[in-house]
């Protein structure tokens, strides 16, 4: 069985004249990332691997989660190919995961995330919000062969406030 935990980055700032890639989290985004990660740790297995987009807002979100779930920050794999908004590219990254990893947490971006969870999960989500967390389990032994999984959990900041 393969378990995917996918997280959309927390709310980011548009205030400074920065490239999209360099936008940092807002204070409310930081608060929401803490809120969701505290709740999400109840859904996580004992061992997992964290991959994150290397964009500032995604990497900052991953760092907050890692600290709250006691995952070594040095073990986070920051990937350029997770800075994508296309679900096919996201699917390619997920399917490249080594099969010895059973539990993968990904931090990335919309539209890729919403489209991916609607294609591969069993719960339709109109729009995965910032800091949104979705858990999907696949009855597969290989990431390359994942098809339709079962959505096991959705945790959104609005449901925790």
Q: Major beta sheet, specifics? A: 6 strands, mixed
Distance between the termini: 33 Å
What structural category do the secondary elements indicate? alpha/beta
Instruction: Spell out the helices and strands N to C.
Output: EHEHEHEHEE
CATH architecture: 3-Layer(aba) Sandwich
Detail the poorly predicted runs: none
> Which class in CATH terms?
Alpha Beta
Number of strands: 6
DSSP summary: helix tally: 4
Q: How are the strands ordered across the major sheet?
A: 3-2-4-1-5-6
Offer a few descriptive terms.
Rossmann fold; six-stranded mixed beta sheet; 6 strands; 4 helices; 161 residues; alpha/beta; 28% helix
What's the structural blueprint in terms of helices and strands?
Blueprint: E1 2-8, H1 27-40, E2 49-53, H2 56-68, E3 77-79, H3 87-95, E4 103-108, H4 112-120, E5 133-138, E6 150-155
Parallel strand pairs: 1-4, 2-3, 2-4
Antiparallel strand pairs: 1-5, 5-6
């Amino acid at each position: 069985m393969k378990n995917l935990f996918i997280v959309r980055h927390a709310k980011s700032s548009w205030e400074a004249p920065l490239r999209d890639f360099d936008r940092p989290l807002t204070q409310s985004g930081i608060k929401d990332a803490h809120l969701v990660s505290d709740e999400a740790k109840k859904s996580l297995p004992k061992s997992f691997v964290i991959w994150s987009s290397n964009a500032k807002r995604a990497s900052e979100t991953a760092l907050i989660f890692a600290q709250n779930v006691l995952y070594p920050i040095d073990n986070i794999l920051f990937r350029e190919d997770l800075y994508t908004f296309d679900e096919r590219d996201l699917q390619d990254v997920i399917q490249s995961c080594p099969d010895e990893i059973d539990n993968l947490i990904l931090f990335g971006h919309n539209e890729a995330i919403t489209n991916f969870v609607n294609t591969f999960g069993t719960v339709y989500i109109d729009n995965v919000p910032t800091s949104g967390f979705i858990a999907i389990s696949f009855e597969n032994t290989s990431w390359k062969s994942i098809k339709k999984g079962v959505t096991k959990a959705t945790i959104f900041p609005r449901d925790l406030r």
